[in-house]
Amino acid sequence: TRVLLTGGSGFIAAHVLEILLQHGHSVVTTVRTEEKGNKILSAHSSYGKDQLDFVIVEDIAQEGAFDKAVVSDPPFEAVIHTASPFHFNVTDVQKQLLDPAIIGTTGVLRSIKKSAPSVKRVVITSSFASIIDAFKGNWPEHTYDESDWNPITKEQATDNPANGYRASKTFAERAAWDFIEQEKPNFSLATMCPPLVLGPIVHYLNSLEGLNTSNQRVRDIVQGKAKTEIPPTGTYIWVDVRDLALCHVLAMEKDQAANKRFFITAGYFSNKEIAEIVGKHYPQYKEGLPTSSTPGGDYPEGGLYKYNNERVRKVLGIEFRSLEESIVDTVKSLQAVGA
Ligand code: NDP
């Protein structure tokens, strides 16, 4: 299959790219700069331009940003849209989070409908952020599944960056499903809703300082920042980036994934468990790690929401990696960039 992958320089997209190539697909990925595109190509120098190439899309929030990128020869049959801001370092929620997420999503769908009629499947990286009702807290009596939608409002979205990020994912995914319903395009949609994503970074695009948001807690633990107090875990469910990347590719390949939303989690984790795994496998960091009596980082005492990940296991046939394997490999990849 010939695939357009947006945001190929991202943490998750780098793994999606790897699996697409392994599965024999031909990939064009969008990046924001020539430099990032060239780094991706040189890390995959055994593939020809017909198997892997890039195009520049500088800012997905611009109207028509994808108009040129969706056109290719041979034409695309699938699009995987991962590009969207995931960080909390913003002063203007509307411009820096909501616009790129929402306009980026509706923009790519519009461009496909207009200029890429051969596309049959679109896969979008949404998030558990579009499922969770954060105002309910740990909500022990509730089981989250694909029928849940984050009820966040436009007004709440601009209250703070955390709300802004969750709203950006919620509104973008809703806009995608609305597009399918209203525009009845030639393609079907599948959305991926992972909670916290952990796992190895690809060394050729990364640095410890510029690390993607979801892995920063692992870096911080390794760097001794949880020694006297372990920070709160926040979201208590997770998935390994390689398992999530495989879900993206399977959701593109499998007919049965058409027009389905997938809640993709391997299960519970806590920051305390991450620190324990680091200590067990990397004794060189022991000095900076918390001990069994260090406060913080544990599960909430009153209990926690449950999760139902049956759909992704049944429809995509996924088996999830363990937290231990994921953390061991994450730390190994951080060492490759200087941890
Ligand atoms: P990264 O920050 O590594 O990747 C984000 C990607 O989006 C980068 O390629 C980035 O480009 C691109 N991007 C962001 N804003 C723009 C813009 N305005 N114009 C063009 N490109 C842009 O994060 P992840 O890989 O973690 O995130 C990928 C997707 O997964 C996002 O949609 C995120 O919401 C979702 N997700 C992530 C989770 C996680 O825990 N990691 C959990 C749930 C969902 P550049 O590198 O050039 O800045």
From TrEMBL:
Every NAD-dependent epimerase/dehydratase domain range: 3-258
InterPro entries cross-referenced by the UniProt entry: Epimerase_deHydtase, NAD(P)-bd_dom_sf, NAD(P)_dehydrat-like
Entry annotated with the keyword Plastid: no
Keywords: Oxidoreductase
Pfam families to which the protein is assigned, alphabetical: Epimerase (PF01370)
Gene Ontology MF, one: oxidoreductase activity, acting on the CH-OH group of donors, NAD or NADP as acceptor
Residue runs in coiled coils: none
Transmembrane parts of this sequence: none
CDD domains per record: AR_SDR_e
Assigned protein family: Belongs to the NAD(P)-dependent epimerase/dehydratase family. Dihydroflavonol-4-reductase subfamily.
Descriptive protein name: NAD-dependent epimerase/dehydratase domain-containing protein
